[in-house]
Amino acid sequence: MIHYDIYDYLNKENGESYWRKAPLVFKKLISVLILSADGIFSVNSRTIEYFKDNFNSYSGQISFTPTWADSSIFNCQNLLNENDKRKFKTQFNLNESNYIILVIGRLNKQKNIELVLEVASKLDNSIVLIVGDGDSRIELEKKVADSDLNNKVNFIGQQSPEAIKDLFDIS
């Protein structure tokens, strides 16, 4: 599974990639690795283009895996009524008058949740709900406690798509 844009990875001047200095070596390495792969999946369409352009004989093994939301759940139908919104807010200990900022994703360095915490420290009358889990969760929770943000930031872990839809409705 490849998450990033290989074109940027290989060509970006200020990028972190050492491969941009040796793209032919990168291509040779990938051509060796691809022989033992069952397939190549990416959430980035430009990466799929790169592999199809450069490894056309393996195009049957290359596929795009979209990350968009399920429209049968995330739509404007079946929104929570005001009474259900109050119940849902109570479930997560949210005050009726607070603005809710919803953050959904993996909790790791790549997602830069630290920036969200910095912004949260500057907001009044707002609560940040962080949905998800990951390698950085314990470190982020410690940062919240050390920064005295416990009253502004709530980590609620992984949630079902239906619960996330309801969280969107109240935020």
- What's the arrangement of strands in the largest beta sheet? 3-4-5
Overall spatial form: elongated
Number of continuous helical runs: 7
Helix/strand class? alpha/beta
* SSE order: HHEHEHEHEHEH
From the alpha carbons, calculate the radius of gyration and give it in angstroms. 21 Å
Ends distance: 32 Å
Considering DSSP H and I runs of 4 or more, what fraction of the residues is helical?
A: 25-40%
The unreliable regions are none
Quick one: how many beta strands? 5
Protein described:
The chain has a three-stranded parallel beta sheet with strand order 3-4-5, with helices on both faces. The protein has a two-stranded parallel ribbon with strand order 1-2. Strand 4, helix 6 (137-146) and strand 5 (153-157) form a beta-alpha-beta unit. It has 171 residues and is α/β, with parallel strands linked by helices. It contains seven helices and five strands, in the order ααβαβαβαβαβα. The model has no long low-confidence stretch (mean pLDDT 83). The protein has helices at residues 6-11, 23-33, 45-54, 82-91, 113-122, 137-146, 161-170, and strands at 40-42, 62-64, 99-104, 126-131, 153-157.
Q: What can be said about this structure in brief?
A:
With 171 residues, the chain is α/β, with parallel strands linked by helices.
Describe the secondary structure blueprint for this structure.
Blueprint: H1 6-11, H2 23-33, E1 40-42, H3 45-54, E2 62-64, H4 82-91, E3 99-104, H5 113-122, E4 126-131, H6 137-146, E5 153-157, H7 161-170
Parallel strand pairs: 1-2, 3-4, 4-5
